[in-house]
Design a protein that fits this description.
Length: about 400
């Protein structure tokens, strides 16, 4: 076996534990953390397992051997690996949590669990401006070497994954000296055989094919239900150095993720938005409660400069193929309608208030457009505002 894939006997033992504990994955995590026994020894010690379960679950039977054998064949056949707390491949940030899951099912690049990650979350029914912001910031942060972590949900989550995937696509043209591994990780709230929502099945496949990964703490056969999503959110924030909230209602899973991130000692960023947008209220509350103001890429990079990649951007000029890609990008920029923000900018520093007054754009749309222009190298952020390059 390689460094991540256990042999059949070990895989079956892991499945016994995971299937037995089911959705009580934190209890299994505590058992693995505190026990001096191996996974195989624990799987052969039913009384010890029963004592470790929450009281209301202690009457459940051990999984049938036929079920264990079936899933032990299904997982590798569908590209899934099963990582136990204590394995070298288990994510170190997540392992520090008292409620870390005992097992993680991973499909894709397991090495991403060790990489610096930033979570981007937000509303499912996001505004077009919010979706643009999520894509732009995700793309830019992936180009700086961060893995973008989110929950595969509709709306902001999907846009964040898409932004990172676009960075990964650009990075394929980079020279061999480039260190960027721009990609994304999706944390699921269901078993590996129950991808949710079904509309994002194609997105999930693209994530894996582009070098990303799918992750879940739930064993096969676990259907998605509303109780799982808040629990899933602790993993999104727990894997990440910081959590970015793009748009969120006052009562939303995104605010739960932000609260969990703060409790875990991680940075929380929130984007200000229009007072007329109800999805700005959650971000405004986070800002009042002490979240970091997020307006530009530098607001994030200032906190994590030691983790950013050495290369600045997803493209390398030394590769002839990249030169063609750059020409294509320039042509695409030339064919794109002139940005109203560029039209409104004057010589010198342009403040955000001045640009908003000149363009009439809502704050979320203006921030998204400035982020895009900054990524493209057409504007530069300076103390007090922005300047044409």
């Amino acid at each position: 076996m390689d460094g991540h894939r256990p042999g059949l006997q070990s895989l079956q033992a892991r499945l016994v534990l995971s299937l037995y504990f089911g959705t009580a994955a934190p209890a299994l995590g505590r058992l693995l953390r505190d026990s001096k026994q191996s996974v195989e020894q624990l799987a052969a010690d039913p009384p010890r397992l029963q004592r470790a379960l929450p009281p209301g679950l202690r009457q459940r039977p051990l999984p049938a051997p036929a079920d264990v054998a079936r899933w032990a064949a299904w997982l590798p056949a569908h590209g899934w690996q099963l990582i136990a707390l204590g394995d070298p491949a288990y994510p170190p940030l997540l392992e520090t949590l008292s409620d870390a899951p005992g097992m993680l099912y991973v499909r894709g690049d397991v090495a991403l669990l060790q990489a610096p990650q930033l979570a981007i979350v937000g509303a499912r029914s996001a505004s077009p401006e919010g979706l643009d912001q999520a894509r732009a910031f995700s793309h830019a942060l992936a180009c700086k070497g961060f893995v973008i972590t989110s929950g595969l949900a509709l709306g902001i989550d999907a846009a964040a994954h898409e932004g990172a995937l676009s960075a990964a696509k650009n990075a394929t043209h980079a020279s061999t000296q480039a260190t960027i591994q721009a990609t994304t990780l999706a944390v699921m709230a269901s078993g590996p055989d129950r991808l949710y929502p079904p509309r994002n099945k194609a997105l999930a496949e693209r994530i894996v094919n582009a070098g990303g990964a799918l992750v879940t703490e739930y064993p096969p056969g676990t259907a998605p239900c509303k109780e799982h999503f808040p629990l899933r959110n602790r993993i999104i924030s727990g894997l990440s150095l910081g959590t970015i909230v793009v748009e969120a209602a006052l009562r939303s899973g995104s605010l739960i993720t932000a609260r969990l991130a703060a409790e875990q000692g991680r940075a929380v960023f929130a984007m200000p938005g229009s007072l007329r947008n109800p999805l700005s209220r959650g971000c405004h509350r986070l800002l009042r409660d002490g979240a970091h103001w997020l307006e530009t890429l530098d607001d994030i990079l200032a906190h994590f400069d030691e983790f950013t990649a050495l290369v600045d951007g997803c493209e390398a000029e030394s590769d002839p193929a990249q030169g063609r890609a750059q020409d294509g990008a320039k042509n695409a920029q030339q064919s794109r309608p002139v940005s109203p923000v560029l039209t409104a900018m004057r010589d010198g520093i342009n403040t955000l208030d001045t640009l908003q007054a000149s363009t009439g754009m809502p704050v979320p749309a203006l921030a998204a457009e400035l982020a895009r222009l900054e990524i493209e190298g057409r504007v530069q952020r300076l103390p007090g505002g922005y300047m044409l390059r």
